[in-house]
Design a protein that fits this description.
Layout: H1 15-36, E1 48-53, H2 66-73, H3 80-96, H4 99-102, H5 119-142, E2 150-156, E3 171-172, E4 181-182, H6 185-188, H7 190-198, E5 207-209, E6 212-213
Helix pairs in contact: 1-3, 1-5, 3-5
């Protein structure tokens, strides 16, 4: 389970502030995963498992670029090279101050957050992380005569009371409830751990929330 995640809290959207977020949340996750894959053993029911903790902020609805939304939606044909180019394009546009023209998230405020625009780079990094899981799944499936079965999943734990958001948590409403509750770290860990232990059939390469496949 790879839960690498940082955000440029309270900082301006500059290349110097944004690059560490992409390096950690996407490039770091990818590089660690690739380094560990040769060590995986196919000695558990359902095969080995990789779980990348992403976020619903990484859903494609947060992108304004129709071209990227169209290409990233074609999940069966996503490649690692394309996801790399996506992430690097964002970094280039941030360096040039052209995020709006590039169709990247530009938020004057983020609902339920005191951090505002600091969530923009985080969202792009999580789009890349979810897309990478798709691309990795495609690569593993396409390998002829592969000896190992490796399942890869991305998932969102929910907005949880943890250090990354200053231990603020967020109030969410359960269906039919009249009062809000704060999601705990234990509740947030449920879906990632479930994916690691159970490896649901047909779920590899997909994005999960609350133990269910959800929209990328």
């Amino acid at each position: 389970i790879n839960n690498a995640g940082i955000s440029s809290l309270h900082k301006d959207t500059t290349f110097e502030n944004v690059k560490p977020v992409l390096d950690t949340n996407y490039f770091g996750v990818k590089n660690v995963t690739k380094a560990l894959l040769p060590l995986f053993h196919d000695d558990t029911p359902g095969g080995a498992r990789v779980v990348v903790v992403a976020s619903t902020l990484g859903q494609l609805k947060h992108l304004e670029s129709k071209d990227y939304v169209k290409t990233l939606s074609d999940r069966e044909h996503l490649t690692e090279d394309f996801v790399d180019s996506f992430a690097n394009h964002y970094l280039k546009d941030v360096a040039n101050g052209s995020q709006k023209e590039g169709g990247w998230p530009i938020w004057s405020d983020w609902v339920n957050s005191r951090y505002g625009r600091s969530a923009e780079d985080y969202a792009v990094s999580k789009v890349a992380a979810i897309a990478y899981v798709n691309a990795l799944h495609n690569t593993l499936v396409a390998q002829p005569g592969k000896e190992k079965k490796i399942n890869v999943f991305s998932c969102c734990p929910g907005y949880v009371d943890t250090d990354i958001n200053g231990n603020t948590g967020v109030k969410t409403w359960e269906e039919g409830a009249d009062t809000p509750r704060v999601k705990t770290a234990e509740e947030g860990a449920d879906t990632p751990v479930w994916l690691a232990l159970h490896s649901p059939e047909g779920g590899s390469g997909k994005f999960w929330t609350e133990r269910k496949v959800t929209e990328f």
